[in-house]
Amino acid sequence: MSLPTLHDHHRPLGSTGLRVSPLGLGTVKLGRDQGVKYPTGFTIPDDDAARRLLAQARELGINLIDTAPAYGRSEERLGPLLRGQRDDWVIVSKVGEEFDAGQSHFDFSAAHTRRSVERSLKRLETDRLELVLVHSDGNDLAILEHEAVYATLAALKQEGKILGYGLSGKTVAGGLKALEQGDCAMVTYNLAEQGERPVLDYAAAHGKAILVKKALASGHVCLSPGVDPVRASFELLFAHPGVGSAIVGTIDPLHLAHNVATVARILGPR
For position 152, which CATH number holds? Predict the structure, then answer.
């Protein structure tokens, strides 16, 4: 009996022209093990394990990869690991946050934004990024209204270096502003946190793209006995018409297969 996959469940990501799997693979665990909020520790996988994980994701119908400069060595590892497969993947990266020596720092200037995107292109060994999101420090509106990052991303889109842009933010006001002026918002939405639902509603009404982060509450969701927290989490997400894809950062092959099978069953036969 074959395992359920997501090959038949790819869907439009807002009005970007991209088609994505309803689950995306988050890759913070490929590059960084400091300052990450997971309930248990983990070991960064070696290249062979990472290659197997990416191959498994592809076989299960996942075509979306989420990375960032702030994810340690994630981008520079993904470049060689994805050689020969570039057209099989929709790659999302970010700008604004850097992570060095265990500390995050932020720069939303025009010069840094352009330099960061050029560096991501080089690390990922590609000539374009499908999406670049502003990696917010929490001051979403101030970044969008007073920094040059969004205008610079718009220029990079015009140049063809990125195909779309948006905000990975922390506030409703920021998410709404990001969608008004850009293509995509990455929001937190899960069984424990649903405060950013108005951003999903706006996206559904205006044909904008939504990516969900912390869909499984970073592994912290606990429900009553007998209730599968993964299924309950994904049922919540995919009941909303605004949700394009949920980014899940697992490096466990069993978790990955279970997540895919759960989503495929929720979405039903196609």
Answer: 3.20.20.100
Establish if 1 belongs to a structural domain: no
- The answer to whether position 78 is within a domain reads yes
Q: Tokens 């080089």 — which residue?
A: 122
Please confirm, yes or no, whether 189 is among the known catalytic residues.
no
In degrees, to the nearest 5, what angle opens at C-alpha 37 toward C-alphas 94 and 244?
45
Quick: pLDDT tens for 67-122: 999 999 999 999 999 999 999 999 999 999 999 888 999 999 999 999 999 999 99
2, part of any domain: no
CB-CB contact of 116 with 132 (8 Å): no
d(Cα 58, Cα 56) in Å, to the nearest integer?
Answer: 5
Q: Tell which phi-psi region holds residue 61, choosing left (phi > 0), alpha (psi between -120 and 50) or beta.
A: left
Segments of the chain scoring below 50 in pLDDT: none
Q: What is the number of domains present in the chain? A: 1
C-alpha torsion angle, residues 238, 208, 19, 55 (rounded to 10): -60
Q: Catalytic residue among 71, 150, 189, 202, which?
A: 71
SS3 content of the chain, % helix, strand, coil (to 5): 40, 20, 40
Neighbours of 41 (CB within 10 A): 7
Instruction: Tell me the whole-structure pTM to 2 decimals.
Output: 0.95
Could you list the residue range(s) of the whole structural domain that residue 55 is in? 7-267
Q: Can you read off the two tokens belonging to residue 59?
A: 């076989």
